Amino acid sequence: MVADSDNTYSKSELSRRKVYEEIRQLYDAGYSSRKIAKLLQVSRNTISKVIHGDINELCRNSRALMLDKYLAEIIYGINAGHTGKVIYQALKSEGKDPGGISNFYVYLKHTAKSLGLTLEKFRHQPVPLPDNTVPEKDFDYLKRTGVFQYLWDESELTEEHRKYLFEKYPVVPELRKRILEFREIFIRKNPSLLYLFIDNCLASSMSKLVAFAKGLKQDIEAVENAVTSDLSNGFVEGTNNKIKMVKRVMYGRCGIRLLKAKLIHRTLVSNYG
After folding, report:
1. Distance of CA 92 to the CA centre of its chain
2. CATH, residue 46
3. 142 occurs within a structural domain
4. Is residue 214 in some structural domain?
5. Same-domain check for residues 247 and 220
6. Last residue of some domain: 60, 90, 106?
7. I need a labelling partner for 214 at 20 to 30 A (CA). Which of 17, 153, 220, 256 fits?
8. Which residues fall within 8 angstroms of residue 229, CB to CB, at 6 or more apart?
């Protein structure tokens, strides 16, 4: 990694470098350390370090300096198609100290981005072909977040992903259908759709859907009201916690009148205003 290239520095390191360069310029212009400290709002200890030290090293974070020693191994691991965890474990197995894994991942991603390298996110061992050659990549991941987005946000899947998902997990299309039916109930505010949804869930092979439908039937009157009525108790959510918090803060110091004023002050203003 080239130390004086802006592309290798993080935003915080670039900001620090700018301040250090200003310190050096003011010092070369004849300003005293006290004057520089006052102008740039930095300590005189920092000024002394910049004057007598190397800016390229001082502006770097200590974690980055520690991991720069393993840059060659890290680049080799990225080019070999290894994930961050594999690279980290390889360094540890060689008796090296790459520090905490979270900081290592930050450094790894920054290094890959600055050098234009592609960092693999998933570990996979390609299957050798009949001629004993190993393909560079013979897999395609469908992440759980992609499945959830398909179910909840109606985001589309690729044809390959759809085919694999439906064949491997046949409950997915049924689950999406039930989700869309449930949304349609509240969009149209139609109780008939509610009863149709409950019947479909009871006939399902998914035990979770059956249990959900049974729960709806046990409190069907309240569920019907939720479907057909525009009224909602959402605005009172958290009110009990608020009242208890105010009461505890005031306990032993204030009376009921002030408590009332804190909770329904608008009514009091209109009555006594």
Report:
1. 27
2. 1.10.10
3. no
4. yes
5. no
6. 60
7. 153
8. none
Tokens of 94: 């060689």
Look up the pTM and report it: 0.45
Distance CA 255, CA 206 (A): 56
Same domain, 218 and 245: no
Each residue's pLDDT tens digit, 41-70: 888 888 888 888 777 767 766 656 678 788
Sign of CA pseudo-dihedral 32, 35, 41, 45: positive
Listed in sequence order, the DSSP H helices in the chain are: 11-28, 33-40, 44-52, 55-58, 62-67, 71-79, 84-93, 101-115, 144-152, 159-168, 171-188, 191-202, 207-218, 220-228, 239-250, 256-263, 265-272
* Angstrom distance (rounded) from CA 214 to CA 184: 20
SS3 label, residue 160: helix
Flag whether 137 is in a domain: no
Q: Locate 150 and state its tokens.
A: 């398909």
Phi and psi (nearest 5°) for 41? 60, 50
> Contact 152/179 with Cβ under 8 angstroms?
yes
Which residue ranges of the chain lie beneath pLDDT 70?
Answer: 1-10, 57, 60-65, 123-129, 134-140, 265-273
Structurally, how many domains does the chain consist of?
4
Q: Which two tokens stand for residue 149?
A: 């987005």
Q: Which domain holds residue 259?
A: 239-272
* 246 found inside a domain: yes
Q: CA-to-CA distance for 265 and 268, rounded, in angstroms? A: 5
Residue type, 5: S
